[in-house]
Amino acid sequence: MAKDFKPKARLPRGLADRTGAELSATRAMLEKIRAVYELYGFEALETPAFEYTDALGKFLPDLDRPNEGVFSFQDDDEQWLSLRYDLTAPLARYVAEHFDALPKPYRSYRAGTVFRNEKPGPGRFRQFMQFDADTVGAPSVAADAEICMMAADTLEAVGVPRGSYVIRVNNRKVLDGVMEAIGLGGEENFGRRLTVLRAVDKFDKFGVEGVALLLGAGRRDESGDFTKGAGLDPRQSAVVLAMLTGAGLTADADGVRVELDGDVELAAALVSNAAFLEGMAELRDIAALVAAAGYQDRVRIDPSVVRGLEYYTGPVYEAELTFEIKDEDGRPVRFGSVAGGGRYDGLVARFRGEKVPATGFSIGVSRLLAALAFLGKMDAEAELGPVVVLAMDKEPARIADYMKMVADLRANGIRAEMYLGGAGMKAQMKYADKRGAPAVIIQGSNEKLAGEVQIKDLVEGAKIAASIADNAEYRAARPAQFAVKEEDLVAAIRDVLERRAVPTLGLAD
């Protein structure tokens, strides 16, 4: 490499740098989520960022393509390792590895970064954070109902008002039963099943007519682009649409009844399908459980919920925000899903050879944070930086004075720093502004002789300055700047911060 080579400072595609304000808001949100999880009895777990590739699950990747969908590399033993695609597969590996030592059911939560080796696009990143909660070892759908109720409580805890979200629940057994009844069971029909599920997933967007087109030959959108359909015949489509809309389908304590416009044969195939009946019964039980706990207005059965991952084996659910936002063309659209999950009774079994029931859900942290910003639920105070002590004199004794001020503030739980650059006062003030400092502390030689410090409230000063048009008037007014005795510094700064409602760390009384 040439000695004068300079690498270009550039961010890889699909990744994003995150700065103080966003990180502070994220940290505050994560703490609220963590508090709800722990209230429900879940305990923390952290797994590594990469796993052996074959531990990630049958859905990713196949051994002939170790980089398909994930970022992979080989270690010095030529073993393939991959950055984790989600937080569920590492949990399955952990549970299998420590199965005998863990309490069952095992309830854990995990927050961490996951990685996708996929083509990036608008709002689609190769690295992002998830916050999961899972119950392993509980076969009853009571565990699924509890997860859904916890999802509702979590959204409200972070600031999403009741009525602005819904937890939608379906069951993959119902979907699998429908597929078998219309002749799309078996591995040979995997591709067509996936196309059907994708069509069902578009119900909220396209309605019955749009889904019917996608189940058949296909659908052409307003731009003229054509999406090829699943190629179902009208009889097969009628079964899927009946499941989706509930038309001709009745499920109550007496059982399940199906009427498909006189199609007795397919109706009989569906109503006698074991997976379909079991799935419907589980949905009925979940509905009863959430109603008993008073969550029936927040957790609802919705047959259009699909969830993409193949490892789901039972109830699946999504947390959807129902308030509207504007798209790029100014048209109103729903914000959409911010969390989802379901039952995956086969993941741990890959390691142990025996079925281990499990259910859980995952919050998309960045997407939920974006929703809170839209709702105005991100605290503006999170953007405020530390109190800055200006370095007015450069002599070692004076630097020691400034260091003592900073140490006193920190000892009392107040975030503070001394300016460590070599610039003058004007540049130091600009630095404090860029840091988002709520206040600066100034002590020149005159203040030192008087045993005082000057405190400038930058937030209040900015408000006052906005009403002063004349520069001379501004200098004379010295807005929001006042003097206090050195021994009163901490108390005075506390007063400034309390007016800004900035939290201290509670290190001292």
TrEMBL record:
EC numbers: 6.1.1.21
Similarity remark: Belongs to the class-II aminoacyl-tRNA synthetase family.
CDD domains cross-referenced by the UniProt entry: HisRS-like_core (cd00773), HisRS_anticodon (cd00859)
Subunit structure, interactors included: Homodimer.
PROSITE patterns in alphabetical order: AA_TRNA_LIGASE_II
Subcellular location: Cytoplasm
Keyword annotations: Aminoacyl-tRNA synthetase, ATP-binding, Cytoplasm, Ligase, Nucleotide-binding, Protein biosynthesis
Protein name: Histidine--tRNA ligase
Entry's Gene Ontology cellular component terms: cytoplasm
Any one GO MF annotation of this record: histidine-tRNA ligase activity
InterPro entries, alphabetized: aa-tRNA-synth_II, aa-tRNA-synth_II/BPL/LPL, Anticodon-bd, Anticodon-bd_dom_sf, His-tRNA-ligase, HisRS-like_core, HisRS/HisZ, HisRS_anticodon
HAMAP family: His_tRNA_synth
Segments forming domain Aminoacyl-transfer RNA synthetases class-II family profile: 29-386
One GO biological process term: histidyl-tRNA aminoacylation
Keyword Aminoacyl-tRNA synthetase in annotation: yes
Entries under Pfam families matching the protein: HGTP_anticodon (PF03129), tRNA-synt_His (PF13393)
Primary location group: cytoplasm
